[in-house]
Write a structure and sequence with these properties.
Length: about 280
């Protein structure tokens, strides 16, 4: 039976895509047929497939980390901002233009496409690694959120919450995110990953202990800051490395392997595998 895991973040830029790519490469290395999935992505940086369909470039990169070819089902809803409004792509095909309020009103009809795409990917796979978008608790957007907790609930995916400790305010962002969830939603969150630590990880032992005491959740990884050479998502450019362009597959492969080595050192992979195996409890 196919297993799954969803990566959520306390905000945009917390490191969800990097964590997804690293985990995709690790599970591929370990012999699992793994595929990425992000139900909805808002990005003008699209990847054009041979048949002309479009998907977000970040999901194409995650597919390469899994050692598989990009597939429009990996990103069934792509939103692009065009000069005359929001451009909506469903399973890679242009569906139409609309303003944001119209899209929010009509988006419930997109669930069929999202679930169709998920199950097409999941049926032949061992593991689906899902990625959320932005924050899962933007309260003005949450009732119609097609990318975060409702997705996890519908496919029964256990979730890890990623927080960027380098930004400051990490305790508040993690605790606040959890407290804005319903009790049923909080049950989906099985662990926390702290991202972009600067300095020796040993010096953050008190951070780990305090966060686990406050949230009641295990910290399953404390990832150091790393200058990643993979392409940036729209508007999310690392000031330390500057904007990065398209890489060759060979260069991406080297970067994925480097990321996997880093993650194996700093993530509790045994705990993550246990979370995947247990599923939603």
């Amino acid at each position: 039976m196919t297993k799954n895991l969803m990566i959520l973040g306390t905000s945009s830029g917390a490191g969800k895509s990097t964590v997804v790519s690293g985990l995709c490469r690790i599970f591929r290395q370990d012999g699992f047929q793994t595929v990425p999935f992000k139900s909805q992505n808002m990005s003008n940086n699209s990847h054009v497939l041979p048949d002309g369909r479009e998907m977000a470039r970040s999901q194409a990169i995650a597919a390469y980390a899994c050692g598989v070819e990009p597939n429009a089902d990996m990103n069934p809803i792509l939103l692009k901002f065009g000069p005359s409004g929001l451009e909506v792509y469903v399973q890679g095909r242009f569906s139409g233009k609309m303003d944001s309020s119209t899209y929010r009103r009509d988006q419930s009809s997109l669930w069929q496409a999202i679930l169709e795409s998920y199950h097409r990917l999941a049926d032949p796979a061992d593991l689906v690694i899902l990625e959320g978008a932005g924050s899962p608790v933007e309260m003005n957007l949450k009732p119609g959120d097609l990318a975060n907790l409702d997705v996890a609930a519908r496919v029964q995916a256990p979730c890890l919450l990623v927080a960027d400790i380098d930004r400051g305010g990490m305790f508040a962002s993690v605790y606040g995110t959890l407290m804005l969830m319903t009790p049923q939603e909080r049950r989906l969150i099985r662990g926390i990953i702290l991202n972009r630590l600067r300095g020796q990880s040993d010096s953050f032992a008190q951070v780990r202990q305090s966060l686990e005491e406050i949230t009641g959740l295990p910290v399953v990884g404390m990832l150091p800051y790393a200058a990643i050479a993979l392409e940036d998502e729209d508007s999310l450019i690392d000031a330390a490395t500057g904007e990065k362009g398209v890489q060759t597959h060979e260069a991406m492969d080297q970067e994925f392997d480097r990321l996997a080595d880093l993650f194996r050192e700093h993530l509790d992979l045994e705990a993550i595998r246990r979370i995947i195996e247990e599923g939603v409890v």
